[in-house]
Design goal:
Chain lengths: 640, 261
Amino acid sequence: MSDIPLTFPHILLENARKFPASKIAMREKNFGIWQSYSWQDYLDQVRDFALGLVALGFKKEEKMAIIGDNRPQLYWGMAACQCLGGVPVPLYQDAIHKELQYIVDHSECRFALAEDQEQADKLMHLKEEVPRIEYIIYDDPRGLGNYKHDWLVAYTDVQEMGRKFDQENPDYFINVVNEVKPDDMSIIAYTSGTTGNPKGVMITHRMIADCSRGFLEWDNLDETEEVMAYLPMAWIGDHIFSYGQALTSGFTVNCPESTDTTFHDQKEIGPTHVFAPPRIWENILTQIMIKIEDAAWIKQKAFHYFMKVANRVEKKRIANESVPPVDQVLYAIGKILIYAPLLDNLGMRKIKVAYTAGEAIGPEIFEFYRSLGINLKQLYGMTESCAYISMQKDGDIDSESVGPPAPGVEIKISDSGEVMYKGPGNFIGYYKNPEATAETMVDGWLLSGDAGYMTKRGHLKIIDRAKDVSKLNNGTLFAPKYIENKLKFSPYVKESVAHGMSRDFVAVFIDIDYGAVANWAERRHIGFTSYTDLAQKPEIYDLIYNEIVRVNKSLSQDEQLKNSQIKRYLLLHKELNPDDGEITRTRKVRRRFVAEKYATLIEALYGGKDNVDVEAKVTYEDGRTTTMKANLKVRDVETY
Amino acid sequence: MNEKKEPLLRAENISISFGGLKALNDVNLEIYPGEILAIIGPNGAGKTTMLNIINGFYKPDEGRIFFEGKKRTKRMKPDHIAAQGIARTFQNLALFRGMSALGNIMMGRTMKMRANLFSQALYWGFSQKEEIEHRKAVEHIIDFLQIQNIRRTPASMLPYGLQKRVELGRALAAEPKLLLLDEPMAGMNLEEKEDIARYVLDANEELGYTIALIEHDMGVVMDICDRIAVLDFGHKIAEGTPEEIKSNQKVVKAYLGEAEN
């Protein structure tokens, strides 16, 4: 198998040789028109930029920070960096200053690539505190015309330097690329953990290449696929999907015009392969539901009727049972009237396979998309495994599990119930943090930090974060995330935090979904001024009450969990926000922090009071803070 | 700052009355190429009247206007003046409500369209080529103002701040030599104001437009303008850099002082 290239620079060279000029590697919408680049264009762009970096003094094993939306230039910058034996460090563009500063400093970046003025400004600001940043390179020159610094260079100028360098040193590029080895580090992906500073996950070319190929073979995907690149480049999911898989298969990556146009651009492209966290699937479903409520009466009736049919049919399909002929006919009619037009409208008609990953997805949401005819599947992975641990197989779907182990991956459950795995994507270690590495890696097995078990079908089922699973005072198992996820499957609940460890019963904080609840309220002529005001309306408390009752009923079905039903709840006065440190950028609740910050609220939940005053500090994106005051109601819920 | 430079526009001894009210009285004003000039003053000081005179909507009772050194004749209509290269936005929104953002901005190109009605109707030959060129220019403006996501949205369905941005886009589409903005930030929240201020600055710095604007928000005016002219009851009472205006006693008394007391 030695002829299959294992480093990304070599894979890129191979693609440029193998694919004709008509095969599109990348598209970007610019000025309202899709601009295309072939694999040869991709290589030329990367080569020019890489040699320009050399001219600026870029050395092997050097790190380069990359920040911005998904632009071809940023992917090329990543590849260019790898061609020189360097390591790209993609950053979340919505991360706050302190986080960015830590990462840029910790990763020892001497070079940084920014999408535009907004990102370049952030980096310039960082440069004052982290002087080791030497060069800041920007793609979009707009708004940067007035800055005159030697160390602030335009992307195209770097490429120009590269072309000049190439003329003088024609063999340099190929020689430097040939020095890159499969087991060299290819990327450091920083994960924002629920505690402490971000950790830099070191990953090699071979890991990304092997896992990408593993994904492609699992679903028989090839170079004809079309994907949309719109998820943060710093997320391992995007790296595997828009970079790893794209290069190893040769398929086309499409960059939307701007974040706001993604949905519309997707309609024009019609992607065949989709990878998105549950949040995106939830958002789209919420949008559909809002639009349906606005539709004509007859359309609403038709939609709801045929969605019931589809749901019935899908339940049979998942269970691998035969669908009754009547439902087959109804489903065929529904497909013409509802499902196909709806998918077309969402730009999802051509999807061959779609994945949801990163968090648990609600069975209702999952089944909604599947019933429409989208082959949506669940995948379980983490940055430390290159997102490659387990995934569902066609024809063997289970809405509550994350599927069997991926090819080449072994999974075992530790005595304490924690999921451990060993596979081709297992990382080298955390950058400059051997203690954390040692805590995670035990005899070649990686500790996932998740509690779960293998089902009878051989699927992995994840319950919760291992360290969060605990017991109530009466000894009942308490899995907070499991409960929170059940709540979050309601369109009206954005986030929730369940409490119960060493308590007598379970009580929850609820963060309403402002968009969906506001819409619901407007329809019923309920006036409100702000999030805080809306959240404290008695009508909204009633609305959420019903959602909690639904969760309690579902919990009551489970022998193990029926005593962990929710007894009390309150609606928070503000949205939990990563800027306030309450949740991570990937929207995971920082429990300890929330428990400390909202200690008075928790006391109110357990102290039997029916309302509580709260004062909270709010941090804006630019770091400014302000405090707000509110009075929150606390209510009881019926249990079953 | 521009002592030696020829002004792009020079208004000499402008006076105009509406009935008994003297809206402007013997006002002199120069706008120099490449600058951002702010016209400020209390309500009713004659700011909008001044803009209306500059773009030819009103004809002054007395006084003369020179644009690029050429004297404006009495017979010139606003559309002639627009064709000379003066574009403006309005205090109240004046968009085509049913038309998309794209269509509205495209309207700004009208002055530059040469194809005749017949070939335009058939979308054939020269008119096709021309349309593509104009669309390209409009797309650059859409990109500049970052409104790609609302390209196809009818103007009436856009929030106020975005409508203002589309209006600015339409003025920019005419590629004017002189851009007049009548309260571009009126009624906006802080974030929207900062956005528009950024676009105005960029239009000046990156695209090289000469801009004259009326604005009430002193913070914005002091931040982004090169020069300020102050009107009060139809008289120009001061002119100079933001620093000079801040320390000018007359201005403080007539305008800034009122706000403070």
